[in-house]
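sry for the spam today, last one i promise. struct tokens for design, 502 residues
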């Protein structure tokens, strides 16, 4: 069957040399900027990332424990109309995820009504019975979601997976934009681009809004496993950007179900914790007793309603790819409406008929572990070797419940600068959605990941992928104001982002 030709987001159909009419200015910019100039700007951005320490760790890689994620200078662009439609679908999906989590750790109506098989939840290792019956402050579980999207045509967007535990990548969204403003300011003359630099303020506002009842001036912190973690730069970056403390387990202590932070002047009560530690390691009294990364007694303080944890423990069940396959039903159950953003067609290998189909069509399918991430534990049938396919066949037969399968989509492409010049490369997209006590908001941008290898569909940084800036175009009511030779100021609904200059 193979993979059909991909839709190019700038040029339209594959092979076209004329940009889509709405993006003609970008085509003119690409054609008018010499490749060596593009390469120089790209190298300058990557040098800055390296100086700032914007790196990630590749566990088990003996060649380099710390790397930068390669950056591509050609932006990806979303039209205002496209973004409006995506935003509606994202808000609906995240509201359903929160309702689902609140239900399965509470009344479990969705199981009693037979919408989902009970064993899919109750027998799932990502379901945390230790927190069943505990309700987070304001009933919000997934405060920060990263919903991975793929595009296959002009109007065809699909959700590839949901990330409701500790979604990463927002620091790259922010730093990529900073690089583009500095290195390609002329693009912001051609396009009215929504600002993303308000994300730390929005995140802090979200954190404060979900503090326990009665807390007038909540103390918020970011809890990190430490500088050996692959996303430590992001933890540090976000804490610094929000002006709050970055803490490790040793900095916190729980007394009488209240969390305190050790400071030079004494103990300070903590009300909201943005935790970047997996559930297993969060509290050794409740989860893994050998954890050195967690805070003893933290879940007790959480159960007592004295601290908010962002995101809530137990959210991993919403990330599970078998649960993902039921998201259209989950969205319909809690919202009363069909999902505005469809799933990719998915076969649950735990079901005998689906397993038979998958085994008969491994050459054409993508097979994934239900709890996999980072591009690991995955088979891409059309590009796999015969030995890889047969190994997956054996694994599927042995443990079918651990896998789902999907068709091999022709992911959209965006022109990308490589050794031989510009060429189309496949992309996906992770927008970030914040949920606080005042509602849900979609950040007008996100993380575009690009598969730098020709023909590759795997965009994960751990598998050799890179990133691009993601421009979300504003409506006609936006303002662009000139500000002389020092740069340009973009005013967006009261938010100001400086362009050019230092």
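last one done:
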């Amino acid at each position: 069957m193979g993979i059909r030709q991909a839709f190019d987001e700038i040029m339209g159909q594959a092979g076209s040399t004329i940009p889509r009419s709405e993006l003609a200015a970008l085509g003119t910019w690409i054609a008018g900027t010499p490749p060596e100039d593009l390469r120089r700007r790209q190298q300058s951005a990557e040098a800055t990332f390296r100086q700032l320490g914007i790196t990630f760790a590749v566990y088990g890689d003996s060649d380099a424990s710390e790397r930068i994620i390669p950056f591509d200078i050609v932006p990806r662009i979303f039209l205002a109309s496209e973004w409006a439609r995506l935003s509606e679908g994202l808000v609906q999906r995240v509201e359903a995820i929160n309702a689902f989590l609140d239900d399965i750790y509470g009344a479990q109506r969705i199981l009693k009504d037979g919408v989902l098989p009970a064993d899919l939840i109750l027998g799932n290792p990502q379901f945390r019975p230790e927190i069943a019956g505990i309700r987070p402050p304001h009933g919000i579980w997934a405060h920060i979601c990263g919903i991975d999207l793929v595009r296959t045509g002009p109007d065809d967007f699909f959700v590839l997976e949901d990330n409701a535990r500790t979604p990463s990548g927002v620091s790259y969204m922010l730093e990529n934009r900073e690089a583009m403003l500095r290195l390609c300011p002329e693009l912001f003359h051609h396009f009215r681009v929504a600002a993303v630099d308000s994300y730390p303020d929005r995140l802090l506002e979200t954190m404060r809004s979900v503090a326990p009842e009665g807390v007038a001036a909540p103390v918020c912190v970011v809890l990190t496993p430490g500088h050996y973690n692959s996303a430590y730069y992001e933890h540090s970056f976000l804490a610094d950007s929000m002006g709050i403390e970055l803490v490790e387990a040793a900095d916190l202590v729980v007394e009488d179900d209240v969390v305190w932070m050790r400071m030079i002047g004494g103990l300070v009560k903590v009300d909201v914790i943005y935790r970047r530690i997996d559930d297993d390691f969060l509290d050794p009294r409740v989860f893994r007793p050998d954890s050195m990364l967690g805070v003893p007694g933290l879940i007790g303080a959480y159960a007592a309603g004295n601290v908010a944890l962002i995101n809530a423990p137990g959210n991993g069940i919403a990330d599970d790819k078998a649960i993902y396959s039921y998201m259209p039903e989950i969205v319909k159950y809690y919202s009363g409406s069909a999902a505005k953003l469809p799933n990719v067609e998915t076969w649950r290998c735990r079901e005998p008929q689906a397993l038979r189909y998958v085994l008969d069509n491994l050459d054409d399918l993508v097979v994934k572990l239900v709890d996999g991430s980072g591009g690991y534990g995955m088979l891409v049938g059309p590009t796999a070797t015969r030995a890889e396919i047969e190994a997956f066949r054996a694994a599927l037969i042995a443990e079918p419940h651990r896998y789902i399968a999907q068709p091999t989509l022709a992911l959209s492409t965006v022109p990308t600068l490589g050794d031989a010049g510009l060429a189309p490369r496949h992309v996906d997209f992770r927008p970030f959605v914040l949920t606080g006590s005042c509602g849900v908001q979609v950040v007008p941008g996100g993380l575009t990941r690009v598969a730098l290898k020709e023909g590759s569909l795997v965009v994960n940084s751990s598998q050799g992928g890179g990133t691009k800036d993601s421009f979300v175009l504003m409506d006609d009511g936006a303002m662009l104001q000139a500000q002389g030779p020092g740069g340009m100021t973009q005013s967006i609904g009261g938010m100001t982002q400086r362009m050019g200059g230092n």
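Residues 80-104 form the longest helix (25 residues). ok im logging off now
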